[in-house]
Design brief:
single chain, mainly alpha, three-stranded antiparallel β-sheet, 18 helices, globular, binds s-citryldethia Coenzyme A
């Protein structure tokens, strides 16, 4: 935490309260209100936390006006072009890009943690075949705390490290197993001769009946999708992980809570909802109808994959994802994919409509990701699990940062109470 650079004065009922202010390395100054209730007997009010900094962090920074996303200072477009997911994982976890030796050790460690406890296979069989893979992931990841007791003590730095590696390594295996179970195919074990993204594709699409060779261009596209979703400041699921961790809950329980939050269509579930929306639109001539619905205050419909709490410009991840969509669909010979055509024309129509321009609503990371994932052979139900696989390193990095923060306290917000004042019980015969 930096020292106060200046102060703000809040006057309530004629009384002035000095509140310290801190300046960040990037972004808005913050007003420290921690002592406000003790000094002035009032709460601040900010449902949705639109103006509230919940912590200080050095991991990720977003400039919503510029459309810039930095991981430990490195722009996401440079990382997507020059780095790869496990190197970005190292950067997020440890704060610096690794040396060649450190990267080799880290990748070898992750590779050797990709198998899950054999008894956990039974967990999957307890779900109905048609269970959404996110339901399976919430259950199985939470159950990891029942299998990996030797890495649940959060006061032990080595156990925190092992839990971090296990989660990053095993999430692809669990997600692939959830997919295989949903389609009635046998589980495919991870392979140590494949890199992270290729291994995930192999676990999803290989079958015992024949050799499955991973296309290196698809593996590169998969790795880029993982990189683009790795971390994103204090988004809803990361804040969920931080709040769960503030009570001292074990890392597997905290990540399971993050997966549950990510599932919602306003957050990580938007990639599935976006592709379903594009399919519902079906042809470009129906775009005006859906644009009108998105603008209609009486219609709850929103353009999925559009808008963002922080970005008031293009989401830089969407820009990279759009380029990747063109490459992957051309490689697969489906560049004339009608859904991609609808997406591009919908984007153009929305960006030229004053409603979206005035509200600064631009495509976000979820607008094009589903098109790529579907072209790669994934069902829409696997889109958010893939987001969860990628975001695990962000959740874990933020979890580690919070545990190392000497200021950490259990998160316990207050409220603006609008309910009944004290009243006496009424016996049933008198009601
Ligand atoms: C992710 O936080 C993160 O960083 C998340 C994420 C990450 O990496 O972790 O980036 C991943 O979740 C991306 C967002 C995915 N969600 C969607 O694509 C769903 C569609 N988008 C919206 O639901 C919405 O834009 C949110 C939830 C993303 C943001 O909502 P906010 O910040 O609470 O904004 P708001 O709802 O107050 O909207 C402001 C105005 C409203 O109109 P008014 O009441 O001011 O008249 O814009 C309108 C909204 O009605 N609006 C939309 C819209 N999004 C906002 N209108 C039509 N279509 C939309 N998509």
């Amino acid at each position: 935490m930096t020292d106060a650079t200046k102060s703000a004065t809040l006057t309530i009922d004629g009384n002035a309260y000095e509140l310290p202010m801190y300046s960040p390395t990037s972004g808005p100054d913050v007003v420290d209100i921690r002592k406000l209730y003790a000094q002035a007997g009032v709460f601040t009010y900010d449902p949705g936390f639109t103006s509230t900094a919940s912590c200080d962090s050095t991991i990720t920074f977003i400039d919503g006006d510029k459309g810039e996303l930095l991981h430990r200072g490195y722009p996401i477009d440079q990382l997507a072009a020059k780095s790869h997911y496990l190197e970005v994982c190292y950067l997020l976890l440890y704060g610096e890009l690794p040396s060649a030796k450190d990267l080799e050790v880290f990748e070898s460690t992750i590779t050797r943690h990709t198998m899950i406890h054999e008894q956990m296979h039974n967990f999957f069989r307890g779900f109905r075949r048609d269970a959404h893979p996110m339901a399976t992931m919430v259950g199985v990841v939470g159950a990891m705390s029942a299998f990996y007791h030797d890495s649940t003590d959060i006061s032990d730095e080595r156990q925190r490290e092992i839990a971090s590696h296990r989660l990053i390594a095993k999430m692809p295996t669990i997600a692939a197993m959830a997919y295989k179970y949903s389609v009635g195919q046998p589980f495919v074990y991870p392979r140590n001769d494949l890199d992270y993204a290729a291994n995930f594709l192999h676990m999803c699409f290989a079958v015992p009946a024949e050799e499955y060779v991973v296309d290196p261009i698809l593996a590169r596209a998969m790795d880029r999708i993982f990189t683009l979703h790795a971390d994103h400041e204090q988004n809803a699921s990361t804040s969920t992980v931080r709040l769960a961790s503030s009570s001292g809950a074990n890392p597997f329980a905290c990540i399971a809570a993050g997966i549950a939050c990510l599932w919602g269509p306003a957050h990580g579930g938007a990639n599935q909802a976006c592709l379903e929306m594009l399919k519902e639109i079906g042809t470009p001539d129906r775009i005006p109808e859906f644009i009108a619905r998105a603008k209609d205050k009486n219609d709850p419909f929103r353009l999925m994959g559009f808008g963002h709490r922080v970005y008031k410009n293009f989401d830089p991840r969407a820009t990279v994802m759009k380029q990747s969509a063109d490459e992957v669909l051309e490689l697969l010979g489906v560049e004339n994919n009608p859904i991609l055509q609808v997406a591009k024309e919908l984007e153009t129509a929305a960006l030229n409509d004053p409603y979206f321009a005035d509200k600064k609503l631009f495509p976000n990371v979820d607008f094009y990701s589903g098109i790529i994932l579907e072209a790669m052979g994934f069902p829409t139900s696997m889109f958010t699990p893939i987001f969860a696989v990628s975001r695990t390193v962000g959740w874990i990095s933020q979890w580690k940062e919070q545990l190392a923060d000497p200021q950490m306290k259990i998160g316990r917000p207050r409220q603006l109470y609008q309910g009944s004042v004290t009243r006496d019980y009424i016996d049933i015969e008198n009601r």
